[in-house]
Amino acid sequence: MKVINVKDISKTYQYYKKQEGIRGSLKNLIHKEILSKEAVRNLSFSIEKGDMVGFIGMNGAGKTTTLKMLSGILKPTSGEVDVLGYNPFDKKNDFLKRISMVMGSRSQLWLDIPAIEAFALNKEIYGIEEKQYKDTLDELVELLNVGQLINTQVRRLSLGERMKMELILSLLHSPEIIFLDEPTIGLDVVSQNVIRKMLKAYNQKHNITIILTSHNLDDIETVCSKLMIIDSGQLMFNGQLEDFIQKQTSTKILRIKCSRDPARIKAVMGEHRVEILSEDNERMNVKVSKESVMQLTNILMSECMNDIKDISIEEADMQEIICNLYI
Amino acid sequence: MLRYFNIIVKFLKYAFIQALEYKANFILGGLFEFLWVILNVIFFKALYQNTTSIAGWSVDEVLLLVFICGLVDSVHSFFFASGFIDIPNLIRQGNLDLLLLKPINKRFFLSFRLINVGQILNVIFNVVMIIIYTNKITTNLSLPNVLLFILLIISALIIVNAFYFSLSMLAFWVIKVNAIIGYSQELFTVGNKPINVYPKMIQKIFTYLIPLGVAFSYPILYLSHKLSTSSLIAGFAIAVIFFALSHVLYRRGIKKYTSATS
Amino acid sequence: MNKYLKIMNTSLQNNMEYRFQFMTTIICSFIPFAVNSLIWLSINNYSSDLYGYSLNEIFTYYFIMMIVNNLLQCDIAYTVCDDIRSGTIIPYLLKPLNYMGYHLFNELPRKVVFILWGAAPTAVLFLFIRKSLTLSWDPILLVQFMVSLIIGILISFLLYYLLGLLAFTFSQVGNFIMGYGVLLTIISGKIFPLTLMPGVVRRILDFTPFQYTAYVPVTILQNKYDGYTEVFGVILLGIVWIAVLYGICRLLWKNGLDKYSAFGG
């Protein structure tokens, strides 16, 4: 079932060109030059219920703008947005109760109050039933392992703990769709992990649709099954994450741990078309084409057995793939 | 709706928790407004040493004016002032976005968000003084009289609320709103004097354009039987219209905000 | 001394940038002048004898007060307070610079700018209302007035600087400063002449420094003091107060620094 349907949306920002100095300011008074920037251009896509979609792109590519149009914060300059059958921009209360948005760089929590109080306020705002509130709260607290922290002043919590509270806050009213804009930004590795696990588990249990933007590709890889790449306001890719990785790369990565002198290994590889990605101490990462990786591995194993301590064949790095896209 | 009442209770609760954190701020919080009331009392008491009437107002009437202003000021500061002052910040830092997604009346949320409990003493003080001075001016008040008097004070609150809210709305268009808000305080020093002190032109401005005269002078004029019925009705109408105008400004502001931000 | 000249120069340039703010403040200061005058004008059965001022003298009082207030007002309390509480004062402690001197020389150009931007609008206002004013252009009065203005500038500065320094001891100085500002308007004579204060209060206020920030300069220019001897006495007391306030500031500064370094910022 499609929960989000977007047809040909565009978003153009208009701004005034600011002139320098006094002359410029005077000129501005008489005639303001209007410039426009197209943040999003003719975007079309749809998202099914329960999808976990990763949305990536460079800064300023239009990710956050798109997310804001889906949640109803912004109105598209043209095109139609349909989320759960509503026009998000109308911000009908019934619609707002079924969605949620979390922005990693903004907080909805009051610093001097324990998070539990903010939860209680949300309970009132969203009109959540007492029993449902308790059950959801217990479930989320357990999933995120925050226990007693909900009674601590938010000011005293670490960034990771605060983000967990933000997530609880945003899921208390059991939304069907949640938009997450850079949720793991600035968080330590452990917290990032916990949050990712929690999103997956929650999706499994409740079939919640998750749309997530992130610069941290681990987020996308771990949590999302679908991927959308946006560049300069246009959709470059929209499909399964696996497909993307498969299609985008014709290469695999060979990670070799050498026992001593890699000279012989290098000699062997020199005879094949490989690219050495990194080399230090006793480790070497090598990019090899998919067709020849098995053959090369065979040769390395037979001819350099004594020089290799460990060897593994891996998918190309997501980071690298994305970077290559933009080159 | 009960829901909105519960939410205000929650806001009150948070304000209390914060007040307990910053106790000194809580106690001294209302000091400034209290001193202003005292200042005006001293001023007028000094002037009335050698006269019984200024612009047709007796000393008790003028003092009642001072306390009504004090009450409106302290109630406004209690519920709304901090919230309104924060609006330019919300806009600038982009935190308004998430607020817009809450399934609740946004103006309500913006208005009651930050309650300042330190003002409660001021509120109580001014209420007591109003009761005392109302009795000094007129002793036989029928129930409808009292109700209309209270209604006039409520409309004063509405006018002041609309006034400050409109100023914060300017933040959607102007960056340096705080400076504008600062200068607009001067209007209050005009509005909180007996309206009859001013030449007719100024009186008109402070009745129809910036209805602070309606807000503060009308309750006393009503008690002293100096307010015609038509003026009374006009006063209420002006309060409603002024509030409606502030709402139009609000809608425009939100519209601009949601079509522009990136 | 050079560095202080430099500070003044920079301050002058900075303040010239804010011409819109200065203009608006000055125009806004016309409002209390007008409002207060109108209130006095509405007094029923006005008696110059009872009040000690004729109506025109009252208008003149508020007119001069407006100018004096614009010149003497000082915003440094908050700056000093913030510097201390946030620790931004520390670089100043390390510079071969007197912190108080820095602020004083920073403030003085503001007065110059006020005069620059305020002269024209004030002159225009004056032209409109000069028939209702009772200003004297007696050169001796003017000299006395100038002296009292200088005393007023210094006392006003010292009082606010002192308040700022209280931040070393109290965390809630901000509220104090606001409350003080309100209190000052009454006890300095800004809202109404101190002659209207009840006898006891008046006598006490006569010995305080607050009157120098408003009442004294205006009263000198209006020649309301009892001849040169009284003026001389008032000015002398003013100078004494400058010394006393300066001493208190030094003390607070020293004590504050000791406490400050104990906490490590």
Q: How are the secondary structure elements laid out?
A:
The complex is a heterotrimer of chains A (327), B (262) and C (265).
Chain A (H helix, E strand, L loop, with lengths): L1 E15 L4 H10 L3 E15 L3 E5 L6 H9 L6 E6 L9 H4 L2 E5 L11 H12 L3 H15 L14 H13 L5 E5 L7 H18 L2 E5 L3 H7 L2 E6 L2 E7 H8 L2 E8 L4 H8 L3 E7 L2 E7 H14 L4 E8 L2 H9 L1
Parallel strand pairs in A: 3-7, 3-8, 5-6, 6-7
Antiparallel strand pairs in A: 1-2, 1-4, 8-9, 10-12, 10-13, 11-12
Chain B lengths: L1 H20 L1 H6 L2 H17 L11 H35 L2 H5 L5 H7 L7 H18 L5 H27 L7 H15 L8 H10 L2 H12 L5 H32 L2
Helix pairs in contact in B: 3-4, 4-7, 4-8, 4-11, 8-11, 8-12, 9-11, 11-12
Chain C lengths: L1 H16 L1 H23 L6 H4 L3 H18 L3 H11 L3 H5 L4 H31 L9 H27 L7 H15 L11 H7 L9 H7 L5 H37 L2
Helix pairs in contact in C: 1-7, 2-4, 2-7, 4-7, 4-11, 5-8, 8-11, 8-12
Secondary-structure element series of chain B: HHHHHHHHHHHH
The domain tally of chain B reads 1
Shape descriptor of chain B reads: globular
Largest interface: B-C, 32 and 32 residues
Report, as a whole number of angstroms, the end-to-end distance of chain A: 37 Å
Q: Uncertain spans of chain B, ≥5 residues at pLDDT below 50?
A: none
Shape of chain A: globular
What pattern of helices and strands is seen along the backbone of chain A?
A: EHEEHEHEHHHEHEHEEHEHEEHEH
According to CATH, what is the class of the largest domain in chain A? Alpha Beta
- Read across the widest sheet of chain A, the strand sequence of neighbours is 5-6-7-3-8-9
Biggest sheet overview of chain B: none
Number of helices of chain B: 12
Query: In percent, how much strand structure appears in the residues of chain B?
Result: under 5%
Fraction of residues in β-strands of chain A: 25-35%
Mean pLDDT of chain A: 85
Could you tell me the CATH topology label of the largest domain in chain A: Rossmann fold
Helix content of chain A: 25-40%
Transmembrane segments (chain B): 20-43, 63-87, 108-134, 146-175, 205-224, 230-250
InterPro entries (chain B): ABC-2_transporter-like
Organism (chain B): Ruminiclostridium papyrosolvens C7
Keywords (chain B): Membrane, Transmembrane, Transmembrane helix
